[in-house]
Amino acid sequence: MQVNWRLIHAARNSYAVLYAACEREGFVLNQTDGPADDVTCYSLTSISASRYHDEIAGADGLTIVGGPHATACPREVADYADYVIVGEGEFTLPRLLADLREGGHGRIPGVMTGDYYRPADTVVRLDAYPAFSEFKGYIEISRGCPFSCGYCQTPQIFGHCMRHRSIDEVARYADRHRQSRFVTPDAFAYGSDGIHPRFDRVEHLLQKCRHRVYFGTFPSEVRPEFVCDESLGLVNRYCANTKLHFGAQSGSDVVLERLCRGHRTDDVVRAVELCRDFALTPIVDFIVGFPFETDDDQRATLDMIRWVARFGKVHVHRFIPLPGTPLAGTTARPLLTETEKCCGKLALRGKLTGSWNDPEIRFFRRPSNDIP
Q1: CA–CA dist 135, 140 (Å, integer)
Q2: 107 exposed, middle or buried (CB, 10 Å; 0-12, 13-18, 19+)?
Q3: Which of 187, 253, 285, 369 is 20 to 30 A from residue 218's alpha carbon, by CA?
Q4: What CATH architecture is 139-370?
Q5: Which of 190, 148, 206, 219 is nearest to 371 (CA)?
Q6: Domain segments of the chain as ranges
């Protein structure tokens, strides 16, 4: 049975991880630019899903779809795909492929097909699966998030309890290459419950990595309240990056509270100032156009964007009501003219990137200043 993987730019790291997991069970995921015999696998975001709907629905072979959108909207995806993987794929995908190879109907936990669905009966332990094999990916060091930010799919997909790859396993994969980058919702939360940092464990991890490590920057980030003398001291002492990426999301404390962000604007200001003290360039995320955002809220965000741009760089994105999140089904509010003008001027000066007008850009183009 030939198993194919539909190449999608936004799913590069998923391919690296699932290739390694499937390879161990005797399945090779062959790269393709479209559906092919016998089985083709897809990983879709909620933004990219519509681009591949007709292709999947018209495929001659079997189709398996996973990813954030499949987990958030399994019934919708099951209407045009043969099998939908709901949740994590490292265990479920090889298990499904083995069942199909033996002539089964794919009716296993964690898979929706036809009128069948049972939730997955396993949770992925990161150490049980390789970070990557033949195709190098970023090293996923943590999974899950204890927060419930209104716009974010992460806890809906991976749960609220953080799980971590062990220090020895992270170091083993990191030492295979001259430089390594990590995937995690919050780099400074490594080894902790995600609320109370354990910087001793972060330091132990960094000490074990012998080659260049980029920590707290693309493709991961940190939370602003975890930015402190101790955490930044670790970055300066052990890491290669001269930038630090964290999310402010709004310049309004009222908006932050409604989003359940778990921090305040004071935490963002303090994080930016500390980055300056440690000679690190802050790269700060903002989201504009929340449905409950008032003009004053948006102007407060705009003021903070201007201030951050004096000392670092800014990513600004238009709010997207992603399925499976607390704000699913809402509508982004229009942007103020002054917001659009300010973002445009800062972008021309090289101080701002993002997709404040076209939200799809954030999923199909990576800003050049993401790379440390």
Answers
A1: 14
A2: middle
A3: 253
A4: Alpha-Beta Horseshoe (3.80)
A5: 219
A6: 3-117, 139-370
3-state SS class at 72: helix
pLDDT truncated to tens, each residue of the chain (372 aa)?
999 999 999 899 999 999 999 999 999 999 999 999 999 999 999 988 999 999 999 999 999 999 999 999 999 999 999 999 999 999 999 999 999 999 999 999 999 999 999 999 889 999 999 999 988 889 999 999 999 999 999 998 899 999 999 999 999 999 988 889 999 999 999 999 999 999 999 999 999 998 889 999 989 999 999 999 999 999 999 999 999 999 999 999 999 999 999 999 999 999 999 999 999 999 999 999 999 999 999 999 999 999 999 999 999 999 999 999 999 999 999 999 999 999 999 999 999 999 887 655 544 444 444 444
CA nearest to 109, candidates 98, 118, 97: 118
What is the b/e burial string over 146-159, where b = at least 16 CB atoms within 10 angstroms of the residue's CB? bbbbbbbbbbbbbb
Based on the number of CB atoms within 10 Å of its own CB, is 99 exposed (0-12), middle (13-18) or buried (19 or more)?
A: middle
For residue 262, with 0-12 CB atoms within 10 Å meaning exposed, 13-18 middle and 19 or more buried, which class applies? Answer: middle
